[in-house]
Amino acid sequence: MTDFDLAETDLSLAALFAGWAMADELQRRLAADGFTDARFADGVIFQHLLGGPLTIGTLAGRLGVTQQAASKSVLDLERRGYTERIPAPGNSRAHLAALTGRGHALVAAARAHRLALSSELASHLGPDAVESARRFLLEVVRMLGGEQPIRTRNVRPPR
Q: Which pTM was predicted?
């Protein structure tokens, strides 16, 4: 196997690799905070619960998955202490998925670490370079039609 020449990386791979490197660093920092069981993919569920509790059916619809798949994901997060199921008002058979205090703490820690990482990158690369890169990547998102899922908190990994 030959070494990969990073200098020959095209834009889409450079953006992907940079995102992965930042995500890995974020995961490392969250683990150091005690969130050793947090996964990058948990954010796919969290983004929908930030606005408040949802029924499993509503969550499944937003995720574009079956109720069984959404329920399984929520149960996994519940086992790890990030979500809980609470009775739905007025419907004794239905339950709502909600973030717990630990879930909200994870979100707050992730936000703080992303801000710190941006600051560190600005210190190392220069604030203008970081801001220019951020604006460029957001323009790529807009140009390729990816803005709406971000605005509506319906971001998913590519298929």
A: 0.88
